[in-house]
């Protein structure tokens, strides 16, 4: 039996997820606010839907690959939302980075509509999304996993099953974002110091990526700085939000996170300075007295 799967949100990761579903032979639908992106997906064999409701009415599984809790709320329960028209027993895979309490409440709301939910944040970036090799931090009831089996196999290289209750997947994603945000901020600080001290930035990148100080984020984000390409694959404002979630989660139990707080302030400074919509590597622009690389002709 053909599974109808819908992806709401064709951003850097959502488009890769949708393409991975097509590649796996699933009947893939998609919804996005941008007509050009939808048209591109349709030209590749996907089914374009103009509202979440149009998508939800046709799909057994709906994956929300949006930015935050507010957008998740809107596409599921807002005007022309998907949830109200989905068939009982259908599944929502909620993949935005949200507060764990929101994920718990979302699962309860969907259950009142006789819908299943998998708390399923994603990690890995656009390249892994396109390759169908995302990492997924998931939690939810066994019925949700059974419904999601073919979909998860199509879009993810690693699926971590972290429990049978909603919210656990989101807790792990929040912790992942703590590290991701701190690593980006630290990479920017290190490169800024190197530039201030007159070290060739390309040489510095080469040395660090082959030394103990490297990280996945350093290797992935510093090339954006070296190319002066701040096209947002993940924007500064994403980490204003995500590190805010990290701090909110810890604040509830009075748990100190000094590095997260410092990194959050760095992203806040970058956003306030006008770089919120740029790639998160643009956090380096907050440092004074450095000459950043310029785009090569």
TrEMBL record:
Domain of life where this protein originates: Bacteria
A GO MF label: oxidoreductase activity, acting on the CH-OH group of donors, NAD or NADP as acceptor
InterPro entries tied to this protein: 6-PGluconate_DH-like_C_sf, 6PGD_dom2, 6PGDH_NADP-bd, HIBADH-like_NADP-bd, HIBADH-related, LtnD, NAD(P)-bd_dom_sf
Record Gene3D superfamilies: N-(1-d-carboxylethyl)-l-norvaline Dehydrogenase, domain 2, NAD(P)-binding Rossmann-like Domain
Catalytic residues identified in the record: 173
Function: Catalyzes oxidation of L-threonate to 2-oxo-tetronate. Can use either NAD(+) or NADP(+) as cosubstrate, with a preference for NAD(+).
Similarity comment: family membership: Belongs to the HIBADH-related family. L-threonate dehydrogenase subfamily.
Name of this chain's protein: L-threonate dehydrogenase
Species of the source: Glaciimonas immobilis
Phylogenetic classification of the source organism: Bacteria, Pseudomonadati, Pseudomonadota, Betaproteobacteria, Burkholderiales
């Amino acid at each position: 039996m053909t599974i109808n799967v819908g992806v709401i949100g064709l951003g850097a990761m959502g488009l890769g997820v949708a393409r991975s579903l097509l590649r796996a032979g699933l009947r893939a639908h998609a919804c996005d606010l941008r007509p050009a992106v939808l048209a591109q997906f349709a030209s590749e064999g996907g089914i374009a839907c103009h509202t979440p409701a149009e998508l939800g009415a046709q799909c057994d599984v709906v994956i929300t690959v949006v930015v935050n809790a507010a957008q998740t709320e809107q596409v599921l329960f807002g005007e022309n939302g998907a949830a109200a028209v989905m068939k009982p027993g259908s599944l929502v895979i909620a993949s935005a980075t949200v507060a764990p309490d929101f994920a718990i409440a979302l699962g309860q709301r969907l259950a009142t509509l006789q819908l299943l939910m998998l708390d399923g944040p994603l990690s890995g970036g656009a390249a892994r999304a396109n390759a169908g090799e995302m990492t997924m931090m998931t939690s939810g009831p066994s019925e949700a996993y059974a419904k999601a089996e073919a979909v998860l196999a199509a879009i993810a290289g690693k699926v971590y099953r972290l429990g049978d209750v909603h919210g656990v997947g989101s807790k792990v994603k929040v912790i992942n974002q703590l590290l991701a945000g701190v690593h980006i901020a630290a990479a920017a600080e290190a490169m800024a110091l190197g530039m201030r001290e007159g070290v060739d930035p390309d040489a510095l990148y080469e040395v660090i990526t082959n030394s103990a100080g490297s990280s996945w984020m350093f290797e992935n984000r510093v090339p954006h700085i070296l190319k002066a390409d701040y096209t947002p694959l993940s924007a500064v404002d994403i980490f204003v939000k995500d590190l805010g979630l990290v701090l909110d989660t810890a604040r509830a139990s009075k748990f100190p996170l000094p590095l997260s707080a410092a990194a959050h302030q760095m992203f806040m400074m970058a956003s306030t300075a006008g770089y919120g919509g740029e790639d998160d590597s643009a956090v380096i622009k907050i440092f004074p007295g450095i000459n950043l690389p310029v785009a090569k002709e």
